[in-house]
Amino acid sequence: MRDEALDALPVEGKHRSRWVETLLLLGRNPMALVSGAVLFALVVVAVFGAAVAPYGYNEQFAGGQLEAPSGQHWFGTDEFGRDVFSRVLFGAEVSLRVGLVAVGISLVAGVLMGLLAGYFGRWLDDVLMRFSDMLFAFPAMLMAIAILAILGPGENNAMIAIGIVYTPIFARVTRASVLSVREEIYIRASRASGAGNTRVLARHVLPNVSAPIIVQTTVSLAFAILSEAALSFVGLGTQPPDPSWGRMLSEGRGFIEQAWWMALFPGLAIFVTVLAFNVLGDALRDVLDPRQRSALSGKGGGA
Amino acid sequence: MRDEQGGPVLSVRDLRVAFRTPRGLARVVNGLSYDVEPGRTLAIVGESGSGKSVGALALLGLLPGDVARISGSAVFDGYELIGRDEEEMRAVRGAGVGMVFQDPATSLNPVLTVGRQLVEALRAHASMPKDVARARAEELLAEVGIPDPRSRLEAYPHQLSGGMRQRVMIAIALAGQPRVLIADEATTALDVTVQAQILDLLMRLQKEHSTGVIWITHDLGVVAGIADHVLVMYAGRCVEEGSVDALFERPVHPYTRGLLGATPVVDDPRPARERDLLVTMPGLPPDPVELPEGCAFYPRCPVRADVRCRTEEPPLASVAGDPGHRAATFYTPEGV
């Protein structure tokens, strides 16, 4: 413990917020940097895909069907003579949008459920968590397919279905953290100084459970993109002629012996994106864990 | 200024707290009564599990409502606290009765700056614009002796030492200008020099605001230094109470005598081999689910009498010739 004379000295360094510090630490991890760069490129492609792509996603080249990769068509062409490279670029937007919206749905619904269940406990906890267990009991894909069978196929419905399927995970992760944070003395102290439940939840509980939720978000983005690809693969997600990686994979399957490039490149795009989200999630977990954090920042323990 | 003449600001009568547990009802506080006078300090002393903290949390309605059963009365400034709902209790917490907790390392939210936590406590009771609250927060930090308060508002709790954090906690507790401050082992986690500074600070603030203080501790050294009145708890009951002088010089209850014997005396003038050995008390406090029928201290009591102590609970009775000094024991020490 330091003595008061030392306390009179100004605190060394700036008072950096936790999130700024997190980003700085993340920047020291090369894997995180690479995956961050990949995801940044993906976002750029998703936003500016139309400007970057050499051809339109539905542009057909008469007589150029099932052409092997060449200088003109980097990833070759498909059975209708469409440029696979352009379609992969356009597909990034679909995948990312479906992933973000779907995870957004499960994030909001799941975190809300977890916060209420964990903080108030008792019957509310039972009701919310048994409901979430019920959703969780179904295999994810089966559940998504069942929901789409009710709602009908399509991109928007796929987002809703994926969002519902991943909600219980967020509810569980949030509730588990809330249960431990709820017993912290600072929660009791803020209640003792007159804070109400809403304020305690928003100001004290939520910020202290955010780390595992952020990690779960990156991992879920990867799963959501995979799910979208899978749903489109079986024809329930994105509808033709819109380009979606899963859809392209499924179409390429029929031509795998004549035109391996039709399936390979969309598959690679899924692989790289999912890997990047997972690596980033791992790196975030390391950085956000306070125990590993002091080791990473090289300052040693320090209370 | 409030009316300060006459009467306690907080009056607790026959406070009882029990918890429903899978093994049965755990009776943790069993009929506690005391008064807190403005500007004076009541120390509640007892070992771990004697119910001292639970009794305080019950006053503020901070015990889980689904398992805690609270009865008795606690009148704060003419207002009954027991049986109020959450909304009504919120008005009292912080503004009427403030609380400082044991461990300053865990009683501040690690992800919020000191300034934000102070501003929040200020705005919990008085609607004031943010910049006014911020200026007031700076004043409060200065008042609790934090140097360079303006820049400390931007500090996160981990950037401050234990002593500084406890000063911040005190500032937060004082933000609502409470008339009663409950300090629950507030200096236990601090080292001795810092502890002395925090005690000085609290005593100064108490004098300035004429706050009534409930000091919950197991540290008799601290009690001797700051308290006016002392209440010794065992198994959720008051076993002895009185002025500091009465309790330290003429303890009656064998438990109090044991506690005092278990405190080392630093400046004992006698040579080492003639000093009294540090007394330890054998045994543990009784299980609150199965409190003994007679005196709760009976199983550990060195001076117990066989039949009466085991079957009859000794009442809290005045000690002859010592006004204000009461003890719950059948035992009368020699020479008193």
UniProtKB/TrEMBL annotation, chain B:
<feature type="domain" description="ABC transporter">
    <location>
        <begin position="12"/>
        <end position="260"/>
    </location>
</feature>
<dbReference type="InterPro" id="IPR027417">
    <property type="entry name" value="P-loop_NTPase"/>
</dbReference>
<keyword id="KW-0472">Membrane</keyword>
<dbReference type="GO" id="GO:0005524">
    <property type="term" value="F:ATP binding"/>
</dbReference>
<dbReference type="Pfam" id="PF00005">
    <property type="entry name" value="ABC_tran"/>
</dbReference>
<keyword id="KW-0813">Transport</keyword>
<dbReference type="Pfam" id="PF08352">
    <property type="entry name" value="oligo_HPY"/>
</dbReference>
<dbReference type="InterPro" id="IPR050388">
    <property type="entry name" value="ABC_Ni/Peptide_Import"/>
</dbReference>
<dbReference type="InterPro" id="IPR013563">
    <property type="entry name" value="Oligopep_ABC_C"/>
</dbReference>
<dbReference type="GO" id="GO:0016887">
    <property type="term" value="F:ATP hydrolysis activity"/>
</dbReference>
<protein>
    <submittedName>
        <fullName>ABC transporter ATP-binding protein</fullName>
    </submittedName>
</protein>
<dbReference type="InterPro" id="IPR003593">
    <property type="entry name" value="AAA+_ATPase"/>
</dbReference>
<keyword id="KW-1003">Cell membrane</keyword>
<dbReference type="InterPro" id="IPR017871">
    <property type="entry name" value="ABC_transporter-like_CS"/>
</dbReference>
<dbReference type="GO" id="GO:0005886">
    <property type="term" value="C:plasma membrane"/>
</dbReference>
<keyword id="KW-0547">Nucleotide-binding</keyword>
<comment type="similarity">
    <text>Belongs to the ABC transporter superfamily.</text>
</comment>
<dbReference type="InterPro" id="IPR003439">
    <property type="entry name" value="ABC_transporter-like_ATP-bd"/>
</dbReference>
<dbReference type="GO" id="GO:0015833">
    <property type="term" value="P:peptide transport"/>
</dbReference>
<keyword id="KW-0067">ATP-binding</keyword>
